Amino acid sequence: MSFRVRFLPEDRSTVADGPVDLFLAAAQCDIWTEQPCGARAACGKCRVQVTAGAAAVTSADARLLTSAEIADGWRLGCQLTLEGDTTLTLPERTRSTAAKSFGGDSILEVPIEPTFPVRGAGKQVERYGVAVDIGSTSLAAALVRLDDGRVVGTTSRVNPQVRYGADVISRIHFAQEHADGNALLHASVVQAIGAMITDLAAQGQVAPDQIHAVSCAGNATMTHAAVGADITPLGQAPYEGSFTSEVERRARTFAWPTHDDGAALFLPMVGHHIGGDTVGAILATGLDRAERWQLLIDLGTNTEVVLGCRGGLYATSTAAGPAFEGANIECGMRAAPGAIDRVRVLGNGRLVVGTVANQPARGICGSGLIDAVAELHRAGVIADSGYMRGRVECEAAGVSAPVCQRVIDAPAGAGTPRRVRLDQDVALTAQDVRQLQLVKGSIAAGIALVLRHASVPPSALDAIHVAGTFGSFVRKESVQAIGLVPAIDPERVHFVGNAAGVGARLVLVDARHRARARQIAETCRYLELAGHPDYQDAFVEAIPLGEWR
Questions:
Q1: CA nearest 449: which of 387, 541, 369?
Q2: Taking residues 405-428, what's their average pLDDT?
Q3: Could you tell me which of 393, 416, 411 has the C-alpha nearest to residue 403?
């Protein structure tokens, strides 16, 4: 008999045909949950409240929850199996993803000191601005009231530059190989931003002449392309563009539908290597104001790492490669409908997966790749070295029978790798694990060297912020389990989602944040990893799986 599982406060529901684990039911409603201890029932931090329906009390519940909490419907999410109509409330701490937004109103300083104050005879109509995150893969924008900084509407779309190359390197090559390459890249992105401004104005019922400013945050290549500068020098030694400072132009220069005197502002960069998107993320997370050391990691094809507090800022950039986007992964794909984006080996030994938009599985994206390797390593299928054990080896190691049955040994002489079947037609291969280890080694080595450069031990970190679109969808226990980030208290690991967009909004609204952005760009110290004498050793040390060593 089927039954309904309802989640609050979203008021989303899913129908199950038989007993279903909380993790899977929530995933079917696009709600992701955390199990910081890896579902070992050791921490008690994944608790959820059953507000209607019945939920059995497990021995772990009895051990980690008080009798009063149990009576009020609290249960450990990692141990909860639902068997009938149930309504649950999931606390914020139980959720594993940050909202894809331009930040809440609590980030604003009151009173606001306008970045673009009213000129002339005074305020006649309500004034607006647009904050834009110029990502390599996607563009996001928000319509913002300039008088109080509130977000009125948001929109996003694929960056149309992808037709010229999937990443910044291929787009630089496109510009190098085509006489009109720079012009095409510039036109495609500014036209897309203009279309988003039009969409936002329609959403908010705002006239173009009410839009007085546009602020943009992007990496060095995206910023150069957007302002119309030559991007080709960024692809050849010494890899320097034509500017690093803040750029302000009239918005009409780009044919954007704004007030005739509207401004277009592009956030400054840290040298030629760390873009305005990272400066915006530093603003959003408050790294430059923190009392104790914090780490910011902007996960992507190029991953930026920033260590900071009031005492200073240190940054580096690591070439992580395109594995997070599905490249070089046998069943890899972007986070599109049907991509496996979450994997769990449950307490009863079953392996379950979730997909984007709950569509039939047709591949695996970056977050699913990290999840799969972390879970199969925890289950014993993958050794610390990254070696994927065969079925007989798994059985001998005590791996659960349901997982052992998913291991597919490579036929002798077939030239195909050993693999683990995640779904009917999607598998994780031994080579996929190696690809992730290379990415993980590069990022972890960058983190280790920045910490070493500043003489900051990992234990001194007060918080870790994981930013970027991709960084919104990974589980903190997974990134820590494989050793991608230092093993501090998981509750001090935060997913900050579209931090670059939040920074663009702050600069758009308040002159104090614009001044902070300039200060960050001028004072942040950049650590070059290319040719660093310790990089190769740090990279090799970071290859094995397991918590940060």
A1: 541
A2: 87
A3: 393
CB neighbourhood size of 457 (10 A): 10
DSSP 141-198: EEEEETTT--EEEEEEEE-GGGGG-SSHHHHHHHHHH-TTHHHHHHHHHHHHHHHHHH
| Phi, psi angles (nearest 5°) of residue 207 | -80, 150
Mean pLDDT, range 335-347, rounded to an integer: 86
Pairwise CA distance, residues 50 & 72, whole Å: 8
More confident residue, 424 or 216: 216
Q: Contact, 454 vs 446, CB < 8 A?
A: no
pTM over 0.70: yes
238 preceded by cis ω (within 30°)? Answer: yes
pLDDT over threshold 50, residue 174: yes
Question: Please, what is the average pLDDT of the chain?
Answer: 89
Provide the pLDDT for residue 84: 93
- Cα-only R_g, the chain: 24
- pLDDT of 119 reads 65
Q: Which two tokens stand for residue 422?
A: 């995640």
- Mean pLDDT of the 339-351 span: 90
Domains and CATH numbers, the chain: 3-94 (3.10.20.30), 105-276 (3.30.420.480), 282-322+436-502+511-518+526-542 (3.30.420.40), 325-429 (no CATH)
CB 542 within 8 A of CB 446: no
